[in-house]
Amino acid sequence: MQRIYEPQDLMEGELLLGMLASEGIEAYLTGQHLAGAVGELPACGLLGLMVDDEQARRAHELIAAYNSALPLPGDEPDNHQGSLLC
User: Fold this and answer.
1) Which pLDDT tens digit goes with each residue over 3-47?
2) Of 49, 44, 55, 66, which is closest to residue 4 (Cα–Cα)?
3) Which of 8, 16, 32, 83 is deepest in the core (most CB within 10 A)?
């Protein structure tokens, strides 16, 4: 298994798990049970997405596409043109 990505938070990690699963890639989120200890543990590097070596390249491609996604034209709020709000 390879650690292929460090999600910013648990919500992003769960979102990416679902996205990868929808593409037939089995992934595991490490550190999800440590998120409650932030404040006592360092905040960065706790979470990590792990996938099998054979699926790592495809998972990297999908996550790169996720990170480079832009809102569809017309979906932006009028007061924040060009900003993606989540």
Assistant:
1) 999 998 888 999 999 999 999 999 999 987 665 555 555 556 678
2) 49
3) 16
What single string gives the DSSP state of each residue in the chain? -EEEE--SSHHHHHHHHHHHHHTT--EEEETGGGGGGBTTB-SSSS-EEEE-GGGHHHHHHHHHHHHT--PPTT-S-TTSTT----
- Round to whole Å and give the CA distance between 45 and 33: 13
Q: Which domains does the chain have, with CATH numbers?
A: 2-65 (3.30.70)
Question: Both ends of the chain: CA-CA distance in Å?
Answer: 30
